[in-house]
Design a protein that fits this description.
- The complex is a heterodimer of chains A (111) and B (251).
- Helices cover 51% and strands 15% of the residues of chain A.
- Chain A has 111 residues and is of the alpha+beta class.
- A two-stranded antiparallel sheet of chain B has the order 1-2.
- In chain B, strand 1 (199-200) and strand 2 (206-207) form a beta hairpin.
- Classes of the chains: A alpha+beta (111), B mainly alpha (251).
- The A-B interface holds A 26-28, 43-46, 48-49, 52, 55-56, 58-64, 67-68, 70-72, 74-77, 82-84 and B 1, 4, 8, 15, 18-19, 21-30, 42, 45-50, 242, 244, 246-251.
């Protein structure tokens, strides 16, 4: 069985945003979703290089949508998580949950 | 907004045309609410994010190339003068040293551009270490034999897997480009010497004119590295993209 690729923290945030957005995940909406959910404004440069890197890793795939006049006739580049991407995210989240197990961080760290 | 086509053209220098159009389109979509300065600042940020690895990788690789070249010069040309009297064998060793320098140059470039987890980077590293160790420790038969055996093993293993075979093809292509530039340099120097008078040295001998030495330096330390990195990047993009249908990109 092939080993799923590892994901960095920002990559996980981006992948979760893509999963939440479903069919409408492209640069603008992904950035807006990250800002809304995390309160963190992702720099466009960081977002696009992360998306390119994730695509190289095979955790997301992209395709071009229709061109719109609002964008000067330029097409949107939509993203979707791949099966290895979902597996990598599940692995990463399991690792976090395992580390969090037994800690009550909301009410303060248990002594 | 005017000059958007220029912005798109600039971004397209660092990524594909379709991706550049999508990035500029995203920024244009947000420009009415954020303003024109935001658009250009964001564009500058995108270009910086897309581009910073290339010059850094090239500069770091060039430093390593200089260091490897200096080390091999001392080893091959000064030490071998006394230990290997046959000039033909000295040429063979010189070519092997140059191949080793070239491998180290591209290892550093590949590690910064694509990371140490990249298959080609690992293959380059797996070849560079035994080849270099064998060249520098050739007087010790045990180490030399171990290094040759290890290199053969790495080459054999790299033919088993399709991805590694492609990686090996990239390595061979880069070495061929380097060899081609070297041959071109030698031809160019021979051509230059026909038209330029050599300068006299202190002991009555003759040495090549300074202009010829500059041509040689530029060819070896600027044109050759640029050609190698260009060949590496293009072949890496062409051969190492994941062809599995789940991750296929329609951009």
């Amino acid at each position: 069985m092939a080993r799923s690729p590892s994901l960095g923290q920002f990559e996980q945030v981006v992948l979760l945003a893509i999963l939440r957005l479903g069919d409408n995940a492209y640069g603008v909406t992904i950035r807006a979703e990250i800002t809304t959910r995390t309160g963190r404004k992702a720099a466009p440069g960081a977002l696009y290089t992360t998306l390119d890197r994730m695509e190289e890793k095979g955790v997301v795939r992209s395709w071009l949508g229709d061109a719109t006049p609002q964008r000067g006739g330029r097409a949107k580049r939509y993203f979707a998580a791949t099966t290895p991407g979902r597996a990598a995210l599940i692995n990463a989240q399991r690792a976090y949950q395992s580390l969090l197990h037994g800690l009550d961080l909301v009410g303060g760290v248990r002594a | 907004m005017r000059n958007v086509a220029i912005a798109e053209w600039i971004v397209a220098r660092f990524t594909s045309k379709k991706r550049a159009a999508a990035i500029v389109g995203d920024l244009l979509e947000l420009a009415p609410e954020n303003g024109r300065p935001w658009f250009w600042l964001s564009l500058a940020g995108v270009i910086l994010s897309l581009a910073w690895r290339r010059p850094l990788a090239f500069a770091a690789a060039l430093c390593v190339y200089f260091a490897a070249f200096s080390a091999s010069f001392w080893r091959a040309y000064l030490h071998f003068r006394f230990t290997i009297p046959d000039p033909h064998w000295r040429t063979v060793w010189g070519v092997l040293f140059q191949a080793s320098n070239c491998l180290w140059f591209i290892v550093v470039y590949a590690a910064i551009r694509h990371g140490v987890r990249d298959r080609v980077t690992r293959l380059l590293l797996a070849l560079s270490v035994p080849i270099t160790a064998g060249l520098y420790c050739w007087e010790r038969p045990t180490i030399l034999v171990a290094c040759i055996a290890l290199t053969i093993c790495v080459l054999a293993v790299s033919t088993l897997n399709n991805k590694l075979r492609r990686g090996l093809l990239i390595v061979v292509a880069v070495l061929m480009v380097n060899a081609g530039i070297f041959l071109l340099t030698a031809g160019l120097i021979a051509l230059c010497l026909r038209f330029l008078h050599p300068a006299p040295t202190g002991n009555g001998g003759m040495q090549p004119a300074l202009a010829v030495q500059w041509v040689e330096f530029c060819m070896l330390f600027l044109i050759a590295p640029l050609a190698m990195t260009s060949a590496y990047s293009r072949m890496h993009n062409w051969l190492m993209r994941d062809p599995s249908p789940d991750s296929q990109t329609q951009v």
